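In the current project phase, we have settled on a layout for protein records. One protein thus recorded is set out beneath this paragraph:
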Amino acid sequence: MAKSIKRNFLYNILLNISKVLFPLITAPYVSRVLEPDGVGLFNFANTYAGWFALFAALGIPYYGIREVAKIKDDIDEQAKFISEIISISVIATFICSILMFLTLFFIPQLNENYVIFLVSGIILYMTPFKIDWFFQGKEEFGYITLRSLIIKTLSVILLFLLVQEKSDLLIYVALNAAAVVLNEIWNFVKLYQSGIHPYFTLSGNRHIKPLFILFSSSIAISVYTILDTLMLGFMADYDEVGYYNCATHLSKALVPIVTSLAAVALPRIAKLKEERNWSEINKLMNKSFSIVSFMSFPIAFGVMVVAPVFVPLFFGEQFYGTIIPLQIIIFTVVAIGFNNLTGIQILLGFGLDKAFLYLLLTGTVSNFTLNLLLIPYFGASGAAISSVFAEILILCVMLVFIYKKTPIRFYNFKDTSINLTLSLSFIFIAYMIGVYSSGWPFVFVTIVGCALVYLCGQYLAKTSSSMMLIEMIKSKFKLHNEDLE
């Protein structure tokens, strides 16, 4: 991989490690203070606002990354493009905000906690100003990482200072909304400093058709990220929402580690495709395939084996209902990792937006149908089963399509089988450690033991991912030593 890809990959890894670290710091505190129903209401309100924000966004993030990558050396074109996109989003956000307000006053379940929903709605109101896609398209991942780390740190400090009892739920909602506002203000300051001053315009009609296709894809994706929570909230209760969201938040916190490469590689894939450099694309894809399996399998199996002990210790005794949903939903980490590779890197990178939409709809229908059948009987666990099945189905359909319709070929299955075999060994390791320990000692010893077995196995097998990791570490030490000299 090119030096910039490696650098941006490391920045994105750092950013996404923070997405793991900060929830690990705050989740035990929040779950004990707000309890299952408070956590459930917060997540239901956030998800509800996020559903409308999804419509307001119109698929802009992926479209924006791809298009900005094509014009990142032309500041005038950038100014025109971002103004047109923001203007479209302003109109869509206004319409969606009105619709959300109406539902809050006419649906009794929502009206009961309308203040919580209104404050959560800041996620929606700020949609036109969410321009991370612009900086991703320009491959400014260093800036994105620094800004995010500073704001997350400030948010955590304020959380511990201001949210101290269950009645502070509204303060917690407001803090999360304030972090969104601060992120976007910082982005616009950075944008103005670069010489780009967005303006409102109605001349962006050329973007409507491609945005509509990606918007449809975003709606399809939302079935796994949004509809599960909404269906649980309406079909079960806030406790089940709380159990499910604790499970999904932990798995979602780990997903970005696996999908980091997709975000930094999308601009590069789009450029290589324009150059019709198929051999370089195939090389990049297979390295990506190896990296995804290298990271996703141990994460999934590792969480699965420690979940029965970890969940009550981490979230509190009231969250035993999270254990089984977590053991199931964690395997979406694997499927999503590969789906980001096949869907975002390949299909979107190649401009196959319609194909991306149609393939996602396959999983959308299956997920929604299974939710209807399983949630009434199994609650959070039923929603987890539906999500895993749908993600696997999408992966299978995408792989078939890619082999039939593109020149991309995956051939590095040896590494994948080794990664899977080593990860399966975690079940035996956890069982043996569980005979002699319990509680936090079990969790820590199991994590360390599994990690050592996995890394030693990787080194002995000399997989391409482990060799690349060693080379990256060596190069960093070499640069450091040269600086010292």
Summary: The first helix runs from residue 3 to 57. The chain has a mean pLDDT of 83. The chain is about 85% helix and 0% strand.
